[in-house]
Amino acid sequence: MNSISLILLHFNEVRRRSIKVWTSIPENMFGWKPDDSALTCIEMVRHVLESEHYYHLALQHRGSLPHFDSPFEHRSYTTVQDELEFAEPYRNQFLETIAAFTESDLDEIQIDRSDAGYIRGLGDMLLRIAYHESVHMGQLLDYLRTADIPRVRIWD
Q1: Distances in whole angstroms, Cα of residue 76 to Cα of each of 35, 49, 55, 83
Q2: pLDDT in tens, 21-69
Q3: How far is CA 117 from the centre of its chain?
């Protein structure tokens, strides 16, 4: 298995586990958040999906976007399934972009996000994108624990 295949496997495994957590959130808890400055459960799901789309465009642009018109921005929050279905074509395009990279691209392509305080190699950036989703999955697991909602088993 080459590096690109491993990165794709990693993205798919992170998303598979995120979906387990996301779909375990009772609908009556979609609007719950642990404090006033936190995202709600459904906002966190949207944030992850929307951020992945932004990161995809940033990878194609080789850096931060001067302006981001999000297709998610004016959508009402409904269900996790609706969020996933809406994001699916963006997700597929993102994975296709990753699959088209070469092993050498992982080291040679630089993603310039100086405005956010960093410039990263493509391989590093891809791992950080998956890590972003993992962090938010952990936050949602903590939300569920705090709200005394049973948590699904993600370690299968």
Answers
A1: 22, 14, 22, 10
A2: 999 999 999 999 999 999 999 999 999 999 999 999 999 999 999 999 9
A3: 20
